[in-house]
Write a structure and sequence with these properties.
Distance between the termini: 23 Å
Strand order of the largest sheet: 1-2-3-5-4
Strand content: 15-25%
Radius of gyration: 19 Å
CATH superfamily of the largest domain: Aminoglycoside phosphotransferase (APH), C-terminal lobe
Structural class: alpha+beta
CATH topology of the largest domain: Aminoglycoside 3'-phosphotransferase, Chain: A, domain 2
CATH architecture of the largest domain: Alpha-Beta Complex
Order of helices and strands: HHEEEHEEEHHHHEEEEHHH
Shape: globular
Number of helices: 10
Number of domains: 2
Length: 287
């Protein structure tokens, strides 16, 4: 069963760790480990998304065997995340989820590499910032809810709710200890006090399911009027479904969108106190 704590060990994160030098095709072919090029074959062209993330660098590789997506990260915590994502994608194969196919994960002295299938679509986060049509926005919100409900419906056995929460609190404590948190998330409040309250006042035990861990529009691709793929599974774990709900809730801008999301997800009543708890916890874990 998926558990990040078995793969990722929190330690100090060096800022800018996701950056990678630009390379020509010939350099990419020579630079990449054999575990990657054995899958792709000879690379004919290289491109990149318009915007790179902070945690890893992404390249799109056209090769004699098709098109692939390659994520690269510097050694350390971000590299561990790529390994965690590879494990998650492999374990989720055949579950009927909209995920990339993972082909290889390896590392060398330069960093870590994750090779997966190339998925077509436009980042939903980009679309949501520009779409003004209310009906279309509601359709997008409904899609996000339905896809999340499908993930949360996957049963997990032998996972205790309290143990899952303690694992997340452990990540939170160590991220705070190593100053990995974003100060902008805690303007006007003491993160040590916030974490103490989270530890001392947990919600009642609830459902345990598979969670994405970073379920936001930027990690979804949109094609032909529906979500075509959900990306970035490095935070996938076992936990309370409200963890994912708390993250996506931020992007629902109107009461109508929130009510529509609840209907499509299948949530009759929103536990706002539980939502608030996991919203705060995510500020320490998603770094």
């Amino acid at each position: 069963m998926i558990s990040r704590k078995n793969i990722v060990t929190p330690h100090r994160i060096e800022r800018g760790q996701g950056l990678w030098p630009s390379m020509a095709i010939q350099e990419v072919q020579q630079y990449l480990p054999a575990a990657i090029t054995d899958v792709t074959g000879r690379i004919s062209s290289v491109s990149a998304p318009a915007k790179q993330g902070y945690c890893s660098h992404v390249l799109f590789l056209d090769s004699e065997r098709g098109k692939f997506a390659l994520k690269m990260a510097q050694p350390g915590y971000r590299g561990d995340e790529l390994e965690a994502e590879f494990v998650a994608l492999r374990m989720l194969e055949g579950k009927g989820l909209l995920i990339p196919q993972a082909f290889a994960c390896t590392k060398d002295e330069r960093g870590h590499y994750l090779l997966s299938s190339y998925c077509e679509g436009t980042p939903l986060g980009t679309l949501l910032t520009s779409v003004e049509d209310e009906e279309l926005r509601l359709h997008m919100v409904g899609q996000m809810a339905t896809v999340l409900a499908e993930l949360h419906s996957i049963s997990v056995e032998g996972a205790a709710w309290g143990e899952c929460l303690e694992s997340q609190l452990c990540f939170a404590r160590e991220h705070l200890e190593y100053s990995n948190i974003d100060p902008e998330e805690f303007v006007g409040i003491d993160p040590h006090e916030v974490l103490r309250k989270l530890k001392d006042n947990p919600p009642s035990a609830g459902k345990v399911c598979l969670i994405h861990g970073d379920y936001r529009p930027k990690n979804m691709l949109w094609k032909e009027n529906s979500i075509s793929c959900v990306l970035d599974w490095a935070f996938c774990d076992m936990g309370d479904p409200y963890y994912d709900l708390a993250i996506i809730w931020y992007y629902l801008k109107t009461q109508q969108e929130k009510e529509h999301f609840m209907r499509c997800y299948g949530l009759e009543r929103l536990d706002e106190e539980r939502l608030g708890y996991f919203e705060l916890l995510a500020k320490f874990v998603n770094v």
